[in-house]
Amino acid sequence: MRGYQTAVFGKWHLKKRPSGFDDFKVLPGHGVYHNPTYLSKDNWNDKEEAGTPYEGYVDDITTTMSLDWLKSRNPDKPFFLMCHYKATHEPFDFAERFKDYYKDVEFPYPPTFLDSGAITTGRSFEGQPLEELGHRYEQASVGPFWTSYPELPFSTKGMDPLEARKKIYQKFLKDYLRCVAGIDDNLGKIMRYLTTANLDENTVVILASDQGYFLGEHNFMDKRLMYEESLRMPFVISYPKEIKAGSRLDDMILNIDFAALFADYAGIKKPAYIQGESFRNNLKGNTSKAWRSAMYYRYWQHAPIRPAHLGVRDERYKLIYFYGQPLEMTGSDSKTTAPAWEFYDLQQDPMETHNAILDKKYVKEIARLKKKLAKLKAEAGDDDATRAAFQQVLKQENLSLPQP
Fold first, then answer.
1. Where are the alpha helices (DSSP H) in 107-160?
2. What does pTM read for this prediction?
3. Is-cis flag, bond preceding 195, omega within 30?
4. Which helix (H) or strand (E) holds 49?
5. End-to-end Cα, the chain, rounded Å
C-alpha cells in the first residue's frame, strides 16, 4: 500500500496467517523463549503447529530477521516493519547473558505490596496474587533453564507468608527486568542500524505493548484489570522531524488510535472501520479541544480471580462495574461472581486503595459517570444485543441508553 515495503517478525498470536505483509516469520501461538520455531509463507498452518526451528534466544533471532530484512529492502521505497518481541511475557525466561543482572540487588517494594484484595480496598475479589506466581515458579523449577540460575529451583517452603511473598516478588521483578534488558539490547541494535544507514531522522520508531502489567502492586501479578498499572500501556515514539526529544504527552490516547496514527504517517486516509483517531498533532503539541476526555474499557474473559467487567475513566475519576458473568466468552470460567461497583478518585487516591463507591460526597460524580459509561458503551457499538438476560442487568444498573 502506498508503495511501502512491509514485514512482521516475531510474536503474532492472532491464529490466522498475516495478511498485507510482503514478508513475515512469526511464532506459533505465544512461541517459546529458547530455540523457537517460526511460521512463514512457506510453512504456514492455522493450527499453530511448530514451524522452522532456530537455535538461540527468541528475541535475538527476531531482531536478526528484522535487521536482515531492513538491509535487503529496496532503499528507494518507504518501509513499514513490525518487530514483535516475546518478552516480557510470562514465564520471563531471559537470555543467558543477563542471568547475573540484579543478582545482589534487593528491589524496593511497592507501597501497595501488602494489599490483600477485598480486605484492603473493598474489592469483591482477590485478583491474581503473587502467591499464585510462587506456585507456578515451584512447578516450573525443572529442566535446563529453570535449574541453571542462582534463584532456582524455586521454593518458599518453611517461610512465613511475608518472607515468601518477598522472595516471590524479588525473583519476579529480577526475571522480568532481565527480559526487559533483552528488549533494550535488541532495540539498540535496530536503532544503531538506522543511524548508520542515515535513516534515524526520517523514520518513525515506536515501542509499545498491548497492555500494562502488575509488578507486585496490590500484591498482584498479570494484567486484564482496569486498575492503573494494567490499564496504562507503554508507548514511546521517536520522530526527530516532528517530535521534541524527551517530551511527554498527557492526552488520553487509546490503542484504537494506533492504526490511525500509522495511516497518518504513511499518508493514507484513515479507513472508515478504524474507530480511533490519529494523535499526530497531539504529539506535535497541537491537541484539539475536541480530543476525548474519557474512555471506555471492557474485559470479557471471566474468571473468579479477575471477573469480567466494564468501566469508564475520565481525567480524574474511574468507575468500574464487575458484572462477573462468562457470557459464553471463550476461555471464561462458568463460575459467576457477585456483581460489584468500584469508584476511585485518582486525584485523592492515585494508587486506588479505597473503593469510594459508597462515599456520599461522590454521589453526583458516580451518577454522571454511569451516564457517561452507557454513552461510550453505545458509541463503541458494544450493545450486548444477543444477550437478552444481560441487557436486563445493564438496565437495572442504569447502563442502558433509552431507545430512540
1. 118-121, 130-140, 143-146
2. 0.94
3. no
4. none
5. 41
Please tell me the distance from the alpha carbon of residue 200 to that of residue 188, in angstroms, as a whole number: 12
Query: What pLDDT is recorded for position 404?
Result: 53
The angle subtended at Cα 164 by Cα 354 and Cα 132, nearest 5°, is: 65
Cell of 321: 462495574
DSSP-H helix ranges across 15-150:
58-72, 118-121, 130-140, 143-146
User: Are 254 and 376 within 8 A, CB to CB?
Assistant: no
Convert the pLDDT of each residue in 342-391 to its tens digit. Answer: 999 999 999 999 999 999 999 999 999 999 999 999 999 999 999 999 99
Answer whether 339's CB lies under 8 Å from 321's CB: yes
Distance between CA atoms of residues 265 and 327, nearest Å: 39
Closest by Cα among 5, 12, 95 to 51:
12
Ranges of residues in the chain with a pLDDT under 70 are 1, 116-122, 124, 402-404
* DSSP letter, residue 306: B
Sole residue written with cell 484513515: 270
Q: Which three cell numbers stand for residue 396?
A: 437495572
pLDDT score at 119: 45
**Bridge partners for 238 per DSSP:** 205
CA proximity to 1, closest of 189, 269, 224 = 269
Looking at residue 122, its pLDDT comes to 64
pLDDT given at position 61: 98
Q: Please state the separation of Cα 396 from the chain's center in Å.
A: 32
What's the grid cell of residue 191?
A: 536503532
Half-sphere exposure of 100 (CA within 13 A, CB side): 1
Query: In this structure, what DSSP letter does residue 403 have?
Result: P
- What lies within 8 Å, CB to CB, of 116 at 6+ separation is 126, 219
Cis bond before residue 91 (omega within 30° of 0): yes
CA distances to 23, 264, 270 from 20, in Å: 9, 17, 16
26 Cα distance to chain centroid: 19
